[in-house]
């Protein structure tokens, strides 16, 4: 709050008690005036001076009475004003915030005790005696006072003017100033007046928070770079493992007389493919966090996306169980990156296969919504999950069963990656599940991705 104008001193105010201010001088003057008027009227009537004389005296009496009333009103107004000045003087002296009045050149005209304490002085008088040039003595940045004056010149008001200043002890503190320009009736600038708040603790806390956020961002970038480098380093030897195991498994260089070797090679190849899928997921997570993963959108049939997702899931899990694909005929194409959407749906299908018994059901269903957007739903009749664990399942690297002896393997990236890849297309992922009743995960793409919208655009 800006002060409305600093008060007069107690001596200047001339404050008196309402009970003690009887102003006897005015009462005596009024009584004498009435007495004198009555005497003159009496003498005039006794000497027969006529009606005109009496009428003039009556007019004079009325004017005298009016002057007396106006004098009384003036006295009452003066008392109210001086009482208000005394009240505001008390507010000024005991305010929690620092209050000041300065010349435009930077000299203090008035300060309160709170401001003296903020700046490290014992009294307002000491502050004004020792701090004689605000621009040169107060601000750490010598040009800060000039900025303050420029803002005042432009707007007549300064709000939340944050500055580092020198405390009387020599340390540096941060203050926030709110001030206004005071001008006379002709618009000439007289002074500045306003308030000061010590915001050192708040400023330091904000600065520490910003530093921590920068460190977290740097750490996140370093993690992403590390994951990308490690993923690349792991994929190189893994490709060799996959290639040679496939040669042995398929007997490309000639028959192998030991069938068990072929089985071992098949196991090596299947494990290698699962490991490669995890590495690719980790690499995608690092790219997503770094904002480096982009999409190559093109019109693609929903049937093609669903079939590619099924192929991805079977390759990842190594299972060839039946996966139902249900969608109406003649569905419109969607403008998406087919590899990324198929990857998202493939991850959802992999989870469905992993958590559904062999005799259970896994399906992928596509449909067009009322708003023109297209949705894919992956349904299973597996073990399901509790409602309160869904949010945790959507976080990367989160396993609902965190024990080393957990029954179901995985890096905990399937759902989080599916959601991230869907959001990259402007879509959403919703999950409906219950323990023992299976899970339904829906990938909803916006209507702007539909073939009709894409062609009209």
CA-based gyration radius: 44 Å
Structural class: alpha+beta
Total tally of structural domains? 4
Strand content: 15-25%
Query: Which percent bin holds the helix content?
Result: 40-55%
- CATH homologous superfamily assignment of the largest domain: Histidine kinase-like ATPase, C-terminal domain
Helix and strand pattern: HHHEEHHHHEEEHHEHEEHEEHHEEH
Number of strands: 12
> If you average the pLDDT, what whole number results?
80
Major sheet attributes: 5 strands, antiparallel
- Biggest sheet: strand arrangement: 2-1-5-4-3
Shape: elongated
Q: If helices are DSSP runs of H or I spanning 4 or more residues, what is the number of helices?
A: 14
How many angstroms separate the termini? 54 Å
Topology:
Blueprint: H1 10-13, H2 24-46, H3 51-94, E1 98-102, E2 108-111, H4 113-119, H5 124-130, H6 134-137, H7 144-155, E3 157-166, E4 172-183, E5 189-198, H8 200-249, H9 259-289, E6 298-300, H10 302-317, E7 324-326, E8 334-336, H11 338-354, E9 362-368, E10 374-380, H12 390-393, H13 414-424, E11 428-433, E12 439-445, H14 451-456
Parallel strand pairs: 7-9
Antiparallel strand pairs: 1-2, 1-5, 3-4, 4-5, 6-8, 9-10, 10-12, 11-12
Helix pairs in contact: 2-3, 8-9, 10-11, 11-13
Provide structural commentary:
- By secondary structure, the chain is an alpha+beta fold.
- It has 4 domains: 10-94; 99-198, Beta-Lactamase (2-Layer Sandwich); 205-289, Helix Hairpins; 298-456, Histidine kinase-like ATPase, C-terminal domain (Heat Shock Protein 90).
- It is 52% helix and 17% strand.
- The chain is built from 14 helices and 12 strands.
- The protein has helices spanning 10-13, 24-46, 51-94, 113-119, 124-130, 134-137, 144-155, 200-249, 259-289, 302-317, 338-354, 390-393, 414-424, 451-456, and strands at residues 98-102, 108-111, 157-166, 172-183, 189-198, 298-300, 324-326, 334-336, 362-368, 374-380, 428-433, 439-445.
- It has a 5-stranded antiparallel sheet, with helices on both faces. A 5-stranded mixed sheet has the order 7-9-10-12-11.
- A hairpin with a 5-residue loop joins strand 1 (98-102) and strand 2.
- The chain starts with 9 loop residues before the first helix and ends with a helix.
């Amino acid at each position: 709050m800006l002060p409305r104008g600093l008060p007069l001193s107690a001596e200047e105010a001339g404050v008196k008690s309402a009970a003690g201010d009887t102003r006897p001088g005015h009462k005596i003057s009024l009584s004498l005036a009435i007495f004198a008027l009555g005497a003159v009227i009496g003498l005039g009537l006794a000497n027969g001076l006529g009606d005109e004389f009496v009428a003039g005296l009556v007019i004079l009496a009325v004017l005298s009475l009016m002057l007396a009333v106006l004098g009384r009103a003036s006295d009452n107004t003066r008392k109210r004003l001086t009482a208000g000045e005394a009240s505001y003087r008390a507010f000024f002296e005991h305010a929690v915030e620092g209050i000041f009045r300065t010349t435009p050149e930077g000299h203090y005209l008035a300060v309160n005790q709170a401001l003296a304490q903020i700046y490290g002085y014992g009294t307002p008088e000491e502050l004004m005696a020792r701090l004689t040039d605000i621009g040169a003595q107060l601000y750490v940045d010598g040009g800060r006072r000039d900025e303050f004056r420029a803002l005042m010149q432009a707007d007549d008001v300064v709000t939340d003017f944050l500055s580092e200043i020198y405390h009387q002890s020599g340390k540096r503190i941060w203050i926030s100033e709110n001030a206004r320009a005071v001008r006379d009736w002709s618009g000439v600038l007289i002074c500045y007046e306003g308030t000061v708040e010590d915001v050192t603790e708040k400023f330091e806390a904000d600065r520490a928070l910003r530093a921590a956020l920068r460190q977290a961002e740097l750490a996140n970038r370093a993690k992403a770079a590390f994951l990308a480098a490690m993923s690349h380093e792991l994929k190189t030897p893994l490709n060799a493992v996959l290639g040679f195991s496939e040669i042995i498994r398929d007997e490309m260089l000639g028959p192998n007389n030991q069938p068990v070797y072929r089985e071992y090679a098949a196991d090596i190849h299947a494990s290698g493919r699962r490991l490669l899928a995890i590495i690719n997921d980790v690499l995608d997570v690092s790219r997503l966090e770094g904002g480096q993963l982009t999409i190559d959108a093109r019109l693609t049939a929903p049937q093609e996306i669903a079939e590619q997702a099924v192929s991805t899931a079977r390759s990842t899990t190594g299972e060839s169980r039946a996966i139902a694909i249900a969608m109406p005929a003649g569905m419109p194409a969607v403008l998406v990156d087919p590899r990324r959407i198929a990857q998202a749906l493939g991850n959802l299908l992999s989870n469905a296969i992993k958590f559904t018994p062999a005799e259970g059901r896994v399906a992928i269903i596509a449909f067009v919504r009322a708003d023109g957007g297209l949705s894919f739903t992956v349904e299973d009749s597996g073990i399901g999950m509790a409602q309160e664990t869904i949010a945790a399942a959507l976080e990367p690297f989160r396993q609902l069963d965190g024990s080393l002896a957990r029954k179901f393997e995985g890096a905990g990236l399937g759902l989080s990656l599916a959601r991230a890849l869907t959001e990259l297309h402007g879509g959403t992922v919703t999950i409906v599940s219950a323990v023992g009743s299976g899970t339904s995960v829906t990938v909803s793409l916006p209507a702007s991705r539909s073939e009709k919208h894409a062609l009209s655009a």
